[in-house]
Amino acid sequence: MVDEVRCVRRVTLGGMMVNVALSALKAASGWLAGSQALLADAVHSASDLVTDVAVLMGVRYWTAPADEEHPYGHGKIQAVVAAAIGLVLVAVAFGIGRTALQRLLAAADGNEPSAPAAFAFWIAVVSLVAKEAVYRWTRAVARRFRSSALEANAWHHRSDAISSIPVALALAVSYFVPSLAWVDSLGALVVAVFILKAAWDVVKPAVEELTDAEMPGKSAEVARIALRVKGVKGCHRVRTRRYGGVFQADLHVQVARTLSVVEGHAIGHAVRDAIRAAGIDVVDAVVHVEPMSENSANCKSNVGSQS
User: Fold this and answer.
1) Which end of the chain is less packed: N or C, by CB atoms within 10 Å?
2) Interatomic CA distance for residues 305 and 91, integer angstroms
3) Continuous segment of H or E residues that includes residue 15
4) Cα-trace Rg, the chain
5) Is the pTM of this model over 0.90?
């Protein structure tokens, strides 16, 4: 846990320094060059600072061990942090989109904006390269520790990098074709769409985790492993849920009616150990052992069944 906290803080602080530098650079350049798209990109970079702070504060809590008040641990705090990051992205996207639409409507009414200065294009290119590098670094650490919150922050960095592409294109077009200076506002609108997509990618899995949504295929995978354990005749009520970067499972397994309690208990432990050792990111499994019903002739698995 200490190693995880140290690595998460290091990569997040590194991203924060990049965000501070890029936000200041793009804001100043956007203002001097008269580029709404670059100013929008500056706001996007600044929003990364909010999510960086959320990760720095959150990592201290989601890595804490289980205690009396939280017997299952604190892993779901990651999902809360990830959801908060997604909501910040939504707010940023709507703010940028509204301003961009206002500028586009003004241009349609004949209020043509002036073309931004050429150097703004190169600022967008620098931002693209820098944020892509931060994204790759952050995602590598997120995968190492299976951190959904850090993964969300990584995609926030990636969305900032991707948003610099339409900004650069819009700046190039509006500079070389002054009559199309309104394309700069269109670039800002495209940035808003990219940010909304990034927000959806962050919020959806976080909400699924917080609501204990079933992970597609995971329960079936657990059932197949259980049925391979010697002595298991069938299984049902197999359920899984995400918890932090890993999964928990609970299931009922059926054994021969003639077995003793001790023998059935041993099979239950064997099922749990097999699931945990299978490399499918299930770190805990609650196995309920029950006798095979008299009318059951074949081994079977009823995934998700409540019978």
Assistant:
1) C
2) 41
3) helix 2-33
4) 26
5) no
